Hints:
Elements: E1 8-12, H1 17-28, E2 32-37, H2 40-50, E3 53-56, H3 62-71, E4 76-79, H4 95-123, E5 126-131, H5 143-162, E6 168-175, H6 182-186, H7 190-197, H8 206-218, E7 227-230
Parallel strand pairs: 1-2, 1-4, 2-3, 4-5, 5-6, 6-7
Helix pairs in contact: 1-8, 3-4, 4-5
This protein binds NADPH dihydro-nicotinamide-adenine-dinucleotide phosphate.
Amino acid sequence: MSLSPNDVALVTGASSGIGEATVVALRDRGIQVHAAARRGDRLRDLAQRTGCIPHRLDVRDRAAVTRLGETVPVDILVNNAGLGRAIGSLSSAGIDDIETTIDTNVTSAIHVIRAVLPGMVERGRGHIVNMSSVLALYPAPAALYGASKAAIHMLSRDLRQELQGTGIRVSEINPGRVSTEFYDVAIDDPDERARTADSGIDEVRPADVADWIVHVVDAPWRVNISQLEIVPTEQSYGGSQFVPFRPR
Ligand code: NDP
C-alpha cells in the first residue's frame, strides 16, 4: 500500500511538533488527513494552511475516540499524541503526572488503535504508525516516560504478529531529541525546563521526522518498516555509569 490519493490518514497530536509536521507532509502528498488534538485554535490554523480536517479531540476521551473510529475510515493512523510529565524523576512525580503520562502514551494510544483497527481489518488495508522513542529502547533517567514508550515498542511488535494475514502494516518510530513543545508540557519549573530543553546541539526537526513517516507509509506494500530510529547526529545512547554512593 504505497500512498494513494484515496488514502485517509488520522494523525493524533496534530496541533504541534511532530504531529503537525506530519499533517503538513501528508497533505503535501495529496492525502486526506484528519488532524486530532485538544487545542482547537491550532487545528483551525493548520486546517486553513493545509486543508486537513480538524477534530478537537482528547485522546483520553474513550467515547469520542470510539466515535471518530466509527465515522472516519482510517487507512493510515499516525498514533502520535503523547507527553512526558515528570520526565526526569519518578521519585518526585505526582499522582497526576503518572496517570496522565501512562493514560495518554499507553492506554489512550491503544484505544485509538482499537477504534480504527476493525475497519482496517474489514477493508483489508491499513497502516498503524506508532510514535515511540529511543527511550523505549535504551536506559535513561526517564523511568516513567521510558516505561510508557517501551509499552508502545512491544505493542507494535506484538501487533505485527497479531495482524499477520490481514494485510495491515505496523511501524514504530523511535525519535531521539526533536525540537518541539515537548518540554514546555513536560516540565513546569522554568529553570529546570530551560536547563533540560537546551540540549546545545542541532536537534532533529519535526519536519525531518515527518519526512520519514511519509517514507514509511509510502513504501511498497511488500515492505513493512517495522522500526525506525531518527536521532540527532550529536546524540547517542547507551553506555554505563559509575557513580559512587556516599553513605550519609
Ligand atoms: P508536542 O508537545 O509538540 O506535541 C504533542 C502533541 O500531543 C500535541 O499536539 C498535543 O496536542 C498532543 N496531545 C497531548 N495530549 C493529548 C491528549 N490528551 N489528547 C489529544 N492530543 C494530545 O511534542 P512532540 O511533537 O515532541 O510529541 C509528539 C510525540 O513524539 C509524543 O508521543 C512524544 O512522546 C514523541 N517523542 C518526542 C520526542 C522529542 O524529543 N520531542 C522524542 C521521542 C518521541 P494538544 O495539547 O493540543 O491536545
